[in-house]
Write a structure and sequence with these properties.
This protein is α/β, with parallel strands linked by helices. The protein contains six helices and six strands. Strands 1, 2, 3, 4, 5 and 6 form a six-stranded mixed β-sheet that branches.
Length: about 160
């Protein structure tokens, strides 16, 4: 599935099977690994180790804890053919070295092919758009199931359908 730059929505790359509520992780590396494993179990990546390392390497450069309880770990790698996404809500918030020093409870993981910069940046921007909505942030913090979390993202992407 090749995505046109400018046409992509998060629900084009996020499947319900790649949403986990709650995540069992108790620290940043566990949380990233848990989400990469979710992608792997759902056949979204070609090589778990390579994908995991790409995200961890990016995280080592600068934390992706973007504030207000959210993190967007991401990486570019040959381990995927198209951009893929997994989302999780932690049982208990964890330290993610966030820019606002607050713990993280919602993690959006993006893994992109090395040469697909446009869709990668667009997906990051769309996630950021959701996080700028205090209403969407609160709904995500309050959700209790993968189905609820997925619906919140879908409704935010397509407000007329909600």
């Amino acid at each position: 599935m090749a995505l046109e730059f400018g046409a992509m929505q998060l629900i084009d790359i996020l499947e319900l099977s790649c949403v986990k509520v709650p995540l069992a992780a108790t620290d940043k590396p566990q949380a990233i690994t848990e989400l990469v494993k979710l992608l792997d179990r759902n056949g979204k990546i070609n090589d778990f180790q390579t994908a995991s390392q790409a995200v961890m390497d990016r995280e080592a450069i600068r934390s992706t804890g973007v504030g207000q309880g959210f993190a967007i770990p991401h990486g570019k790698t040959s381990a995927v053919d198209n951009i893929v996404m997994a989302v999780g809500k932690l049982r208990d918030p964890i330290d993610f070295d966030s820019i606002d020093s607050r713990p993280v409870s919602i993690i959006v993981l993006l893994v992109s092919p090395v040469h697909q910069t446009g869709p990668h940046i667009q997906a990051l921007a769309r996630v950021s758009r959701i996080m700028t909505s205090s209403q969407a942030r609160q709904k995500l913090q309050d959700c209790t199931s993968p189905e609820q979390l997925y619906k919140i993202i879908a409704d935010h992407e397509n407000p007329a359908d909600s």
